Amino acid sequence: MNPSSLKSRFTTRFLRALTKINAHKPISSSSPGPGEIFQRYRRIKVAADKSMAYSVRSRRTWSRATLWRLRTRSPRSRLATHARRSWVKTRSTRAASHGKEKKEDGGTVEAEELRELVPGGEAMDLCNLLDETAHYIKCLTTQLDILDRQECTSREL
Amino acid sequence: MNRALPEMLQWQQQQQQQSYFSELSGVFRSQISHLCFDGGFMSSDSVVTREVKPDNNGLETAWPEPGKLEMGSLGLGFEFEPCGPSYNMNYAISGTSSCPPPAAAELVTGKMGSAVGTGNESFKKRKADKLQNSKAAVEDDSMKKIKAYEEDGESKITGPSNSNKSKHKKENSKASEVQKPDYIHVRARRGQATDSHSLAERVRREKISERMKYLQDLVPGCNKITGKAGMLDEIINYVQSLQRQVEFLSMKLAAVNPRLDFNIDNLFTKVEEFPAVQVVANPIHYLHFNPAQEVVSETALRRTISAPVTIPDTSFLDSSCFAQIQPSATWDDVELQNLYNAGRFH
């Protein structure tokens, strides 16, 4: 097992976050209410995304975008989100004008959808977008792998 | 490379110096002794004179006749080397040609004169550029430019049959290469446009198709689909399904009682034993799931996630993990709500 691989980095971080969450909110033995589960779910999801993004650091645009998004989730940083949105708009218009010299209607419609899916994809031309997508898919599959195993082990114990 | 150079020369000769040849032939006839050729050019006199004659006729009768010009250029076959002496030779030639000798004047008609002038200037200019770039990646650079010009000339000469953009990509007598000393060199394909914009476009398109191929390997079940739009659709669906799976699994983890006994070895050893990603990805593909709105029940979750699992190698499995596999449930694009509401809760 490669100690510095993406998978191991993600796993250690994620497990650490999970223990923190579990320690913070000890779940009652009786079936918990939906609200509680939902809260925990949100926390776990955030932990998964965060640990994945931290494992990749700033090497990828999507990880940077995810981290940025996670950091500025709170409503008090409205200024920051506004700044980011304007930045994204300028970058995307520049990328768009640069990237599509010919009108490829079919291509750009899907490209827009892909941009929405991949975090940080708004301001990239198609070439880099595909790059990011490939890495993003790889990381997502790793994440799913670990989550699945974790769920298995949690269930059987 | 030795083989390539004379070829390069032929083309070079052919395209930009068609007008030039008229003068050149004249020059050679009268001033052969002045030119100092490098090794590789054997018997200058005989070769030149032999080849100049058909050249002459061709030039006199029909100006844009590529065949004859080609013959002439093929015959001559200098060995231009992209360093000192050849440049001198070029300049010598251009020097002599700038003041047209009387022999050349016979050949050159009025029209040609003006064309020759421009041809000479462009030739000189290009040679000057060549000298400047000689330090940085000489051969490649010159190859690129020369090829670019050559294609340009080719397209001009051979007229409508070679309209720039309609030429099929697969037809490459000169396949495009990408060499990378300092910057990306792209060789223009036969019969395709060679201005910088279309070259850049082509590079960009090739990059994109390369990445699409890589994505095709990543996304399962994309081998049959060709075409960018379909591929992008598949990729989008796959990314969406992956994201939903993450949410789904984290919901599951939230519902399950937390176990603080994290056995890392347990987590990692399973890696080598079976490809779990396959297992996870397939059943929940295209799942319509909105976890935010559903009341989650653990048993229902277990059932849905384990139902249509196809495990490639069951012998290594930890049996308790998949003890609840129920092959009866077939997986369509069923809304999870239906499952919840179907009253399958224990």
State the gist of this model:
The complex is a heterodimer of chains A (157) and B (346). Chain A is an all-alpha fold. Chain A has six helices and no strands.
What attributes does this structure have?
heterodimer, A: 157 residues, globular, B: 346 residues, mainly alpha, two-stranded antiparallel ribbon, disordered C terminus
SSE map:
The complex is a heterodimer of chains A (157) and B (346).
Chain A: H1 6-24, H2 34-56, H3 61-71, H4 78-99, H5 105-117, H6 126-156
Chain B: H1 4-16, H2 18-31, H3 44-61, H4 66-76, H5 84-98, H6 102-107, H7 110-132, H8 138-157, E1 178-179, E2 185-186, H9 196-218, H10 228-255, H11 264-273, H12 276-281, H13 298-306, H14 336-341
Antiparallel strand pairs in B: 1-2
Helix pairs in contact in B: 1-2, 1-4, 1-8, 2-3, 2-7, 3-4, 5-7
Q: Tell me the radius of gyration of chain A.
A: 19 Å
Overall body shape of chain B: rod-shaped
Q: How much of the polypeptide of chain B forms β-strand, as a percent range?
A: under 5%
Q: Radius of gyration of chain B, Cα only, in angstroms?
A: 35 Å
Return residue spans of chain B where pLDDT drops below 50 for at least 5 consecutive residues.
19-125, 128-180, 270-346
**Average of the residue pLDDT scores of chain A:** 77
Biggest β-sheet strands, sense, barrel of chain B = 2 strands, antiparallel
Structural class of chain B: mainly alpha
Order of helices and strands of chain A: HHHHHH
Strand order of the largest sheet of chain B: 1-2
Number of strands of chain A: 0
Poorly predicted runs of 5 or more residues of chain A = 101-106
Helix content of chain B: 55-70%
Describe this structure in words.
The complex is a heterodimer of chains A (157) and B (346). By secondary structure, chain A is mainly alpha-helical. Helix content of chain A is 76%, strand content 0%. About 4% of the residues of chain A have low confidence. Chain B is mainly alpha-helical and 346 residues long. Chain B has 14 helices and two strands; from the N terminus they run H-H-H-H-H-H-H-H-E-E-H-H-H-H-H-H.
